[in-house]
Amino acid sequence: MDRYFGFDLGDAESAVSRLTKEEGGSPEMLTIRDAKSLITAYAQLTDGTLVVGESACYVPKAVRREIRFKTRFLTDPESAGHVKRFASGVLGELYGSGDLVKNEDCCFYIGCPAGWDRTAREEYRSIFEECGYPPARIISESRAALVSACQSKHLQVGYDILSKPVLVVDIGSSTTDFAYIANGKEVELKTAGEVALGGGIMDEILLEHSLRICPREERIRRVFAESRPWKNYCEFAARRLKEKYFSDPDYWKEHPCTESVMIRQTIPMRLKLVMDEETADLILNEKLEKLGERSFREVFTGSLREVREKIGETAPELVFLTGGVSKMQQIRQLVREAFPDSVVITGAEPEFAVARGLALCGRIDEDIREFRQELQELIASTKIEDLVEAHIKDLYRETVDTLVDPVLTKAALPVFDRWRSGEIARLSDVDGELEAAIGAFLQTEEARSLLVKPITAWLKPVSAELENYTVPICVRHRVPYQSLSLNSYLALEDIQIRVEAKDIFAVEEITILIDTLVSVLVGLLCGGSGVALISSGAPGILAGAMLSLVVLVLGKNRMEQALLSADIPKLMRKLVRRGAFESRLETLSDEIRANFYRSLDEEKNEEITGRMVQEISSQIELCLTKMAEIVEVPLG
Q1: Using an 8 Å Cβ cutoff, are 544 and 534 in contact?
Q2: Are 5 and 337 in contact (CB under 8 A)?
Q3: Could you give the C-alpha distances from 178 to 31, 151, 527, in angstroms and in order?
Q4: 293 dihedral zone (left: phi>0; alpha: psi -120 to 50; beta)
Q5: How many CB atoms lie within 10 A of CB 34?
Q6: How do beta strands 13-20 and 28-29 pair?
């Protein structure tokens, strides 16, 4: 994509921003009908021409005139047509001014309230498609405000958006959206139905108050009853006056803050709008039926309390306010009261935060798309497999060091007890029983838990070397490098690399440790040290003498074979003391490890290593893919 457009189609005002990929930086606000902030109104003239913006409210020869229709999109079927005509008019203005060029490689990001579900968003997107817009994507205004906050200079100085909790409060003309970011992840927050609260309610109160003190009240009310666009236009003028007053209320204490609106009906009339301290208190505290007999202040503070409860104990360190209403000192004070330990700030032009954020979302999403594509190219190469293979022997050694003693205690000793008690009839059966017992133990939860520590130790150097490949990818696409860091971003239990014990030792191909244990343990119980152990101690003298005679008659090798096949009486088995066997096991650990390490060095075991490298690499690659999937804005 060469350029990204952000279209903040609001209920009262709309704005369009544009961001060129090569230039980067902050999006520029486009001027439409000589205004960066465009009244959301359209008029359709007798010749079919569409006029948008303020002039649409009073242009002559209009067969249709509409204003403030977005808020009715979910409830009024006709609203979709109004949105389509207004969007078409804006598109025509963009082409006419040259700000948008036919067939250029661009896309539009268009905002909607956070409360809209997927069906509503798709219906909304299809309207712009039908109008002939370039590829369009619908995202929540809270997300756009959040991105705008992340890119704001306010947050680039002194605040790390990726590590500190931040709350964005976007107060529009008809809705208030909340977005919360913690640990670099975004969460849209909704209150119990109160997101339908917006600054437009204040405008209605101000207009109503001005009407009550106007000498032409009845005549103007009749005009409003006949023409909703004129009423909405006067509400828009009230909004501008309200924002003007609250931008510097101390100044307006000594100066009149008024605005005259010319209503061009059959007989032109002027409506004088007035803002003063009394009116300022009224628009915040007057109870309205549409708010359940509550005031704006009560509903807004209640929403802030609900948001704080949903956030939980991790209160935001920073609250970023966007939207024209955020200029009001009273609003900022209400937020400070709800979050007394947070820093509360607004941008230089909060009314354009959503429009700018929408364009930024386009660039960020493109970066993430390219980022994920480059990551897949890394996964498709052999770099991860080569890295794992270079460290695979370390994994073998660390797991063997961890498991040898538990295997002897949990598998070998119980087999000895079973032979000693007569449950295992012949010594020749011991090797098979040992193999089965060791394999069963290595597949237990206990063995898997023991593997956590060596696998963690093994992953650290592997992860560090892996970042030689992942960090440059992140840097190129402005993605935080922690997003692909196995060490610093995710806990071990989240990595989902499961090198189970049975995959290392208990399959047919991987018999190194089992063969070593079996050969040593069988040798312990029969022949050589085994004979010495059976005949050791005073109770075993007779048994030892009998075995010595057998050796003289049959020879050592044939004696061992006969002994292995014999069903030795239980009484004789009892002569082999358990304590002596346990002592012997204590001396075996080093011998088993040495045999295992020697086997690794002398026997290449290429098939075994190949299987292990492929399995572990695949799981690391799957982990990286999942980590990339959750990379999302904001990127500050």
Answers
A1: yes
A2: no
A3: 28, 17, 78
A4: left
A5: 9
A6: antiparallel
